[in-house]
Amino acid sequence: MKSRPEIPGGPYLVVGLARSGAAAALGLRTRGGEVLGLDVRSPAGTEALREAGVELHLDDRDGVALLDRVRAVVKSPGVPAQTPVITAAQERDLPVLGELELAWRMLENEFIAVTGTNGKTTTVELIGHIHREAGLPVAVAGNVGTAVSSLVGRLDAEATVVCEASSFQLEDCSQFAPEAAVLLNITPDHLDRHGTLEAYAAAKLRIFARQSESDVAVFPRELASGIDAGRAQPVDFGRDAQAALCEREGRLWWRGVALLALSELRLRGRHNVENAMAAAAVCLARGIEREAVRAGLRSFQGVAHRLE
Questions:
Q1: Coil, helix or strand at residue 211
Q2: Which residues contact 219 (CB under 8 A, 6 or more apart)?
Q3: 97 pLDDT more than 90
Q4: Nearest to 183 by CA among 194, 170, 199, 198
């Protein structure tokens, strides 16, 4: 198990108290930290934070004065970096951690992180499904469902965390280094936040930046020329027969050996073939048995309300 960087000492200011920020605040309280919570609105569910001992500052559009009382700031992914309290914290050289970064540091579990413009939710759920087919403990977290920080104090050390990683979350990461990182695709999105496609892509590619030689980096072969997988072991997927996980002759192949026919997939749509290839590639590269991967691909019916 790789060691994690230490979490800065508190007290902490959590900026943004929607699902991810609230989970971060509660995770810090689970560890006994003193936590202040700041939000420009009064989000639902803040009563649970108050009951947990979080000092709430709601309907507050500034919050800069609160920095005098804290030693570190946690930023919810929906909060822009240009928010006054965030820029003021950086000017004071206070540590500013994103929620994903914080959760990763608080959990000792191995991580599989999945990013991409499209397909993240389906792919993380499929990876989780394959782990369950293999009889392996797993927890799936992401933007649609469970915030990663909410797993703190609830998860067996042997479980693998499979999580979505958005560009918003990744741009807030400084040391995040998942044991496996998956990039599905990159198309223009969130340009109102990132400004340019190049900046958006750079945020996505941060998923590989801190990985080590023992880690796995999974990405489409068609994007390989623009990807620096750093020190991780590269694993590509795509229609090119040279890809580690490839599609040809109506079948999926893993390193030259047939895995299953495309007709056996229950997922519908061309995009879901890509998602299935990515999920299979990361699971196989991490040593999950071929039969369990095949069984998972055959039995996974997809995410509720997608393509129904």
A1: coil
A2: 182, 183, 227, 229, 234, 235, 236, 237
A3: yes
A4: 170
For residue 303, is pLDDT > 80? no
CB atoms within 10 A of CB 120: 23
12, 34 Cβ separation under 8 angstroms: yes
In the beta sheet, which residues pair with residue 246?
A: 238, 253
Tell me the residue type at 104: W
Task: Tell me how crowded residue 69 is: count the other CB atoms within 10 A of its CB.
Answer: 11
Q: How many CA atoms lie within 13 A of 243 on its CB side?
A: 24
Counted residue by residue, the chain has a size of 308
The position carrying tokens 């795509």 is 238
Return the residue matching tokens 């807030």. Answer: 172
CA distance 217 to 264: 26
- Token pair recorded at residue 44: 């639902």
- The DSSP-derived string for 159-204 is PEEEEE--HHHHHT-SS---SEEEE----S--HHHHSSHHHHHHHH
Q: What would the two tokens of residue 95 be? A: 């540590």
Q: Mean pLDDT over residues 154-163, rounded? A: 96
pLDDT exceeds cutoff 60 at 307: no
Contact present, 216 and 285 (Cβ < 8 Å): yes
Distance CA 251, CA 163 (A): 28
Q: Exposed e or buried b for every residue in 203-229, given b needs 16+ CB within 10 A?
A: bbbbbbbbbeeebbbbbbbebeeebeb
Of the chain, the end-to-end C-alpha distance in Å amounts to 40
pTM: 0.94
